[in-house]
Amino acid sequence: MQDTATEIIKDTTPLFTNDTIVFGVLMIALGLIFYTSSKKSGFWNKFYKIVPALFMAYFIPALFTTSGLIAPEWVTVSETGEAVEKSSNLYYMSSRYLLPAALVLMTLSIDLKGVFNLGPKALIMFLTGTIGIVLGGPIAVLLIGTISPETVGGVGADAVWRGLSTLAGSWIGGGANQTAMLEIYGYNQALYGGMVFVDIVVANIWMAIILIGIGKATRIDKWLKADTSAIESLKEKVSSYAKKVDRNPSLTDLMILAGIAFGTVSFAHFGASYMSSFFEDFVNSFEAGITRNIFTFLSSSFFWMITITTIIGIILSFTKAKSYEGAGASKFGSVFIYILVASIGMKMDLTLIFDNAGLIVIGVVWMIIHAGLLILVAKLIRAPYFFLAVGSQANVGGAASAPIVASAFHPSLATVGVLLAVFGYAIGTVGAILCTILMQLASAA
């Protein structure tokens, strides 16, 4: 009689699976973070001088996930042995509803002229970040390949360089570019989950480091010998305007802000559905191949949602709606941003860092090269840490995290992150194709 190997499916159900409860847990954590960070003396005052509150808003949910308290997704095994995959919708809710609401509220008081006066260094640092990703991939493959050739090996659809192409698409552009690279290079979709995991782990570790750096931005800028005058001027101008129109918000003010925020969310989703459908037909009109995949981002509803939201916010900044900054528009936007940060942190299980160790090492080396090039160029052109952090996240994190990092410096700067991230969508696939060609050559070396 022949034995049949049976795969053992692990039940990974967390303690709390109801999104209503999980949301409450996250909000309690955020409340405690802000309560402790408000202390003017003692342990907490010293602690938050080292570790920013924004980082804690990201890290504590990650600890909750690691401990099994909550989870972004899990497998439930019934008594009959049937496995059912389930997931939380909190990140989707935060990124699709609260992110656009936050962006429009933070953009209401934008000084567009002041943003342009920031000069070319923001774009230079963004493009430096892109070059760091393009060159970092093949260099990482070469370095790891000399130590562990099997880690960068594989043939045909299983070739590791094909899988890494999806990381390049994600880290230069976003999800749409990542999917395009999967289509272009035909990586084995059964192995694709491993690449997505590397994407999440490495990108989130790097984001955590950037958030910690924000707390030391003044010291870093001094080391970089950076000229922060344009940034400080913009922050001062926006802050002065906020003080000028500051008022105790009435119920009417709050309801109008809610109308502006979620009316924009509604219109952005409405417009995004039509624009993505229109451009999907446009993209599909091309023959299958690289040309079609270069323009794939145009069929992404998320891309159009962010774009439409930003345009609405900029238009409203030229109207009387701008005065609602005095009623706390950017403060409410910041609340939504922190909820988004917590939902991103929830996606990180720290114990899984040790799974797929070889691929993780490739990703870490890749990100170190990206970071090293950014630091070198920032030092050479004396670019502030703000440009380094946002330029990097506009590549690696995209439109979901670039405004988070930018707004951590000042709510008025959130739009800078969005604009750069949108640009990243546009060049994502082209840059990723160049990176993949180099990685293919490196893996064959």
Rg calc? 22 Å
Helix-strand category: mainly alpha
Q: Could you say which overall geometry the principal axes of the C-alpha atoms support? A: globular
Largest sheet composition: 2 strands, antiparallel
What is the average of the pLDDT values? 86
Order of helices and strands: HHHEEHHHHHHHHHHHHHHHH
Query: Given the structure, what is the number of helices?
Result: 19
Number of domains: 2
Give the total of beta strands.
2
Q: Strand-residue fraction? A: under 5%
Give the N-to-C terminal Cα separation: 48 Å
State the share of residues found in helices, binned by percent.
55-70%
Q: Can you list the strand order of the major beta sheet?
A: 1-2
Task: Tell me what the structure shows.
The chain is an all-alpha fold and 445 residues long. The chain is built from 19 helices and two strands. It has helices at 19-37, 42-50, 53-66, 90-107, 112-116, 121-147, 160-172, 175-185, 192-214, 217-224, 229-244, 251-284, 290-294, 301-316, 329-345, 357-381, 385-396, 402-409, 414-444, and strands spanning 73-77, 83-87. Strands 1-2 form a two-stranded antiparallel sheet.
Summarize the structure in short.
The chain is an all-alpha fold and 445 residues long. Helices cover 70% and strands 2% of the residues. The chain folds into 2 domains: 19-88, no CATH class; 92-444, no CATH class.
Name a few traits of the molecule.
single chain; 445 residues; two-stranded antiparallel sheet; 2 strands; disordered N terminus
